[in-house]
Design brief:
412 residues; alpha+beta
């Protein structure tokens, strides 16, 4: 993995914006022919046509080119609670977003003129037949495929160990791509949440559902209060009531985020299922260790990579199999270990560590930690695929040697 991933991530955004410009140009040309006179701007109806063309073209290009990977794995896991809490979180975020938006300082006159023009166009879309389909249905699908399915996926493959830095970067690109200075903050914050949801699930579906609910709530609010510059104080009648509404909304969104954290299946499960199927089919003696082992035992909710402990005599075959599934990263030395076989891969954007002949150094002493069949104490059924789990007591000893006291406590 190298910096070309960063260039590709930025390139996806540029391509996305270029499609928008091309769709607008094509629509203007067609509208000019239909009207029998040249046009420089589109009315609301033709703007809808342009946005439909833009969204469908983006969806088609990013899926057919496999820049954004589409899979049924997440849906097959029946994630109905995740999707339900995504809707709740989106509804709870609406009023706090309006509140923060109202605290922003006024823009210089030239920028404000552009913002007013963008808001007038948005108002036209809300009032035009087909506006809901574009704003609330097509836009969420297109934007999630591009900014999470392509941009963030590529960034996570570049720096999987710095996932929050990559999420922040993708959220920043998401905000900038809206091309509206007044909307920089809201898309950025939402981009952080959507990025976190994607990183946890490796699916754009929770983001699409959240995006749909967010846009639908804004659409409905506009039709109740048509003014684009209405404040929360004007909606609720007083500043005190507006603050109470914000507090009530926080009591919705914060528990929703907590529930999402508890119910979202970690992104690595789909990857682990693929790996397990491959290793099992080839007769490899292996087991899951580390944080994924703790997760599958219900002892933690946070998993950042997959540790695969493999029989030392079969490590080369396992390495070959994983190499067909993802990218092999350059090997790096670690002063805390003298492990004989340590290989790092990125598979479906997930970091996977292949370990054999595990050796932990402590106080100048090398502690041999090989995978023994007697230490494969349990098996976890992952949707019909058997996942061998390394011994909890063995990992308690490993974590103690590593000085990982918080993990030792989990193994008690």
């Amino acid at each position: 993995m190298n910096k070309s991933n960063l260039f590709w991530a930025v390139g996806y955004v540029i391509i996305f914006l270029a499609i928008q410009v091309m769709a607008q140009y094509v629509t203007i040309s067609v509208a000019s022919l239909v009207n029998g006179a040249p046009l420089t701007e589109l009315d609301a109806m033709w703007t809808i046509v342009s946005l439909v063309l833009f969204s469908i073209s983006s969806i088609a290009l990013f899926t057919l080119a496999r820049w954004s990977l589409v899979s049924r794995c997440f849906v097959l896991s029946r994630p109905w609670l995740v999707l339900a809490w995504s809707v709740v979180a989106a509804i709870g975020a609406l009023i706090p977003s309006l509140f923060v938006q109202g605290l922003l300082p006024e823009w210089p006159e030239e920028i404000q003129h552009y913002i007013d023009k963008m808001e007038a166009l948005a108002a036209q879309l809300m009032n035009t037949t087909g506006g809901y389909a574009v704003v609330c249905l097509l836009a969420p699908v297109a934007e999630e495929l591009v900014f999470r399915g392509a941009v963030l996926r590529t960034l996570l493959e570049w720096k999987p160990q710095r996932r929050w830095t990559m999420i922040v970067l993708s959220a920043l690109l998401f905000a900038i791509a809206h091309l509206n200075p007044a909307q920089l903050l809201h898309p950025f914050v939402i981009g952080l949440l959507l990025g976190w949801m994607y990183e946890r699930t490796r699916s754009v579906i929770p983001g699409i559902v959240y995006h749909w609910a967010n846009n639908t709530a804004a659409y409905m609010l506009y039709h109740v209060y048509p003014s684009t510059d209405i404040t929360l104080t004007e909606i609720f009648g007083s500043e005190g009531r507006a603050l109470m509404a914000v507090a009530f909304s926080l009591l919705i969104i914060l528990p929703a985020i907590f529930q999402l954290n508890m119910t979202m299946k970690t992104a690595q499960l789909a990857t682990l299922k693929r790996i397990a199927s491959k290793l099992n089919a080839n007769g490899i003696t292996w087991a899951v260790g580390g944080s994924m082992m703790l997760y599958l035992r219900g002892l933690t909710t946070n998993v950042h990579d997959i540790d695969l402990m493999v029989d030392e005599g079969q490590v080369e075959r396992a390495k070959e199999l994983l190499g067909t599934m993802g990218k092999h990263l350059p090997d790096k030395d670690n002063a805390q270990y003298a492990t004989r076989h340590y290989h790092k891969f990125v598979i479906d954007g997930t970091e996977v560590d292949l370990i054999a002949g595990f050796v932990i150094l402590k106080d100048g002493v090398a502690h041999e930690c090989p995978l023994l069949k007697k230490d494969i104490t349990d098996r976890h059924d992952l949707e019909g695929t058997s996942i061998p789990l390394h011994s909890l007591s063995v990992w308690r000893e490993y974590y103690s040697l590593m000085g990982r006291t918080e993990k030792v406590a989990m193994c008690e």
